[in-house]
Amino acid sequence: MSIKSMEISKMDIIKTSPVKNKSWLKPVVFVVAVLAFTAWQFNQPSSDTTVARSEIRVAAVQQSDLPFTVSGFGKLISKHKRLLTAPTRATIEEILVLPGTQVTPDTIIMKLSNPDLLLQVNNAEMELARHHASLRELIINQKSDYLAHQVILVQIKANLAAAELKVEAQASLAKKGIVSSIDFKRSKLAATQLAEQLTIEQQRLAHLKNAHQEKIAVQAQFAKQLDANLALKKSLQAGLVIHADIEGVLQSMPVTLGQSVTAGEQLALVASNKTMIAQLKIPERDAQHIAIGHQAEINTRSALVRGVVNRIDPVITNGSVIIDIDITGALPVNARPELKVEGIIEIGMLNNALYIKHPVGVKANSSKQLFTLLADQQTATLRTIKFGRVIGNNIELLSGASEGEQFIVSDTSSWLSNPILTITD
Length: 425
What we know:
The protein is an alpha+beta fold. The protein is built from five helices and 21 strands. It has helices at about 5-20, 25-45, 115-175, 180-240, 285; strands at about 50, 60, 60-80, 80-85, 90-95, 100-105, 110-115, 240-245, 250, 260, 265-270, 275-285, 295-300, 305-315, 320-325, 340-355, 365-375, 380-390, 395-400, 405-410, 420-425. Helix 3 packs antiparallel against helix 4 (about 180-240).
């Protein structure tokens, strides 16, 4: 065999041997394909998913004027409160009323004791009594002194009158030479001196009277200070009996029997049950639509009362805004501070709105798939709906639905993988 023939023979061997080695791949590929198809078929959602009608909640699409409201939960709080504090350092001796009790202004909440204050009152009374005694003594002494000066003044007046009579008598005698001119001049000098003395004594008496009045005024002013001090002590003593001061409910009492308290320390809080407001927590997204003056309705569980928005808290707490509602209607008998209530605030009116009962899991201004019932009422198919604002228990429909159509509004999240739902009765 030639070399060329040998090369050709080797080439034939090389070409034919791979075909023999790969002949087993076809059945393997076929088996794998069959298994993959079977697994794919197994994993495909069933087209005959069924659910009992009693397990779903269905709502129909409606179209009408819809009041735009915002709701929230909260509590009643008193519009007028009275914080009762300790008038001075004291010990709680007796507690007569417990929180939750209806009270009147004269209701005694508790009694305090302070022996040191009692001693201060007694000392102030004694000091005031002593001062009044001293004042009376001063007035008596001043009157005696005034009378003594009046006696002197009367004596001077008498002496002056006698001197003037003597001068008058000596005047004619002096002209006749019976009385010497020197004696006459002496008589005139004596009368002049007495007249001057009378003037001085009259001035002294007037000054003495003014001085006496000034001293009495000073002492009387001091007596007023002592009296005011005594009144303060007695007021503090009277303040040891703690009254409610207003009609309402004793809301809280952060102290206990036998506890020592300091001046100004809180003893109790009384809240009026005649004038109350509703304080609601409204989600931040809804609160932006609320304005002062919007009308509201408050549900106290026993009655519905009307109100009006009078305050919007500027602070956002845990995603909520506090809204205060002034109660304008008559409060029911069960109304009391801290009573849990529900409120609906009327924002406005949506004219000719398309809406449906709020489906589970649907958020405002979003798109979501809902199952809509077909005409046979036994089949429901998925449809994408665009939603608008949440209005109370309803939600606005922007597109994807028509009036009268029915949708499943209960939770259907476990069925969304299947576009068709069969409903059984």
